[in-house]
Amino acid sequence: MRITIFFWGGRISIIPIPKLEIGASVAIGDVALEAEADRDYEVYGFDANWSWRDLQVRGEYVKQEVGSLATSVAPEKQDWQAWYAQASHRVLSTNFEAVVRYSDYTSTHADVEQEQWAVGLNYLFAPNAIAKLAYEFNDGLEGEPTDEDALLLQFAYGF
Fold first, then answer.
1. Could you read off the pLDDT of 70-94 as tens digits, one per residue?
2. Residue pLDDT, tens place only, 139-158
3. SS3 (DSSP) at 111
4. Domains contained in the chain, number
5. pLDDT exceeds cutoff 70 at 1
6. What is the CATH number of the domain that holds 126?
7. Which domain holds residue 79?
8. Tell me: the pLDDT tens digits for 44-65?
9. Alpha carbon of 21 to those of 17, 34, 63, 108, 146: distances in Å?
10. CA pair distance 152, 159, nearest whole angstrom
11. Does the N-terminal or the C-terminal CB of the chain have fewer CB atoms within 10 Å?
């Protein structure tokens, strides 16, 4: 069980030109496993979103780090990084949207690392309600779930 000792963070974004948003975020604090001393925890992220007519391109990079602690059951420094780039296009200005995405995840633990290509078709019921059908081509450590391709059907609602 993780116990947060102290934590703060925030996000800032700018719109340098119409239809382009660039953002950065940070979260810094101290975390601990139960009955262990606290250690540093840091998360940094950068993101961008650009749209033009029916085309939207977006991406994000996130890095997380937990400091080392010699007396811990998990003493080594832990490091995770992930990023993705995605392009989507509204089909003939309808509610259908074609999507292609590439993502990469690296970790201190090789068995959870993954590269992924995904293609999909979305249907937008409203700006905050979407149905998604996607196929993921996954490349992870052989024999691990991260190496298995997947067909996904999802519904997302934002508020």
1. 777 778 888 999 999 999 999 998 9
2. 988 988 889 999 999 999 99
3. helix
4. 1
5. no
6. 2.40.160.10
7. 2-157
8. 999 999 999 999 999 999 999 9
9. 8, 40, 20, 31, 31
10. 22
11. C
